[in-house]
Structure formats: C-alpha cells, structure tokens
Write a structure and sequence with these properties.
By secondary structure, this protein is mainly alpha-helical. It has one domain. Helices cover about 40% and strands about 0% of the residues. It contains 3 helices and no strands.
Length: about 60
C-alpha cells in the first residue's frame, strides 16, 4: 500500500507528472494483479473535537 498526501490540487498534479510517479506506475504495471488506485479528495479533517461535539451536543466550550 502506498499512501501519499498533498496540500493542494496543483501539488498532486505536479506529482502525477513527475519522474518519481512515472517509476511508481512502471512498478505497478509489472504486477501480476490489477492494482487499485484511488484519489480521495478530502474537504475537511476533524479529530477528537468531532467525537466530543457529537457526544455532548449541548455543552459549550469553557474559556473559548
């Protein structure tokens, strides 16, 4: 499994056109099985604050 992350769409496009990515695709093409390649575009990321907000919907932040 290869997982990569880019901060912008432009950075992703630049990577897909790079020599490094060309080598990755070359290795994938040598595989005996059809690979799964996905590009997931994430609009927002939340952490523990999401869990806390959903478990305590009426609570307010103290000092915030």
């Amino acid at each position: 499994m290869l997982l990569e992350r880019w901060e912008t769409e432009e950075a992703l496009e630049e990577h897909l056109q790079s020599e490094a990515y060309r080598r990755i695709i070359g290795a994938v093409e040598l595989s005996g099985a059809k690979p799964e390649i996905r590009f997931e575009h994430v609009a927002a990321v939340e952490g523990l604050e999401l869990v806390e907000r959903l478990r305590n919907p009426g609570a307010t932040k103290v000092g915030g």
